[in-house]
Design a protein that fits this description.
There is one protein chain. With 187 residues, this protein is mainly α. Helix content is 62%, strand content 3%. The protein contains ten helices and two strands. Strand 1 and strand 2 form a beta hairpin.
Length: 187
């Protein structure tokens, strides 16, 4: 099965598994404390309060509350939109995990990502709107890790220099690698 097809299967599996969440309303404190219910909270000034006014929200998660603010501009306070965004974020996290595990060369990355995406332990974070901070932070964590791995990808000149215990510089000079002992192995 191709990588693209596996990603599509992961996305589809999550979207189908969380169908009950689409029909759910708000849970516990979603509407009371986290969504911009008051008209003044749905203004640009209300958005600025999320970032710059301590105590404007019960917990300081400005990116999460900014996402809620943007969504309130799109679908008001209808819960369906908020639930769909949480499910899509979770599905994307499953795909990113698959890509990450595959990139690391671990065995069975698709099975591991599918297990992550469909495991019941995630239901609370996905179905409870105010837990957006979990799915959103997961997304940025996985993206940051993938960016780091791309940045730190070994190239031939660096890995050959590391094998020799030296550091190849762009001008072609060879220097001792950081931490390498000048006269032999370190203890």
């Amino acid at each position: 099965m191709s990588t693209l097809l596996r990603c599509a299967v992961l996305l589809s599996a999550v979207l189908v598994a969380y169908i009950p969440a689409y029909r759910a309303g708000y849970i516990w404190d979603d509407l009371d404390h986290h969504l911009p219910v008051r008209p003044q909270d749905r203004t640009v000034a209300g958005l600025a309060r999320y970032w710059f006014e301590p105590g404007a929200t019960p917990q300081y998660y400005p990116l999460t509350h900014t996402a809620f603010w943007l969504e309130s501009q799109l679908w008001g306070l209808e819960p369906l939109g908020y639930h769909v965004v949480n499910v899509v974020l979770h599905a994307l996290n499953g795909v990113l995990l698959f890509v990450l595990l595959r990139r690391l060369g671990l065995p069975f990355p698709f099975v591991a990502a599918l297990l992550f995406a469909l495991h019941p332990v995630h239901v609370e974070s996905v179905a409870w709107v105010s837990q957006r901070k979990n799915t959103l932070s997961g997304l940025f964590y996985l993206l940051a890790l993938l960016c780091y791995l791309r940045f730190d990808a070994p190239d031939r000149s660096r890995s050959a220099a590391a094998d020799a215990g030296t550091d190849a510089s762009p001008d072609g000079a060879r220097r001792a690698a950081p931490g390498a002992a000048a006269g032999g192995a370190q203890g």
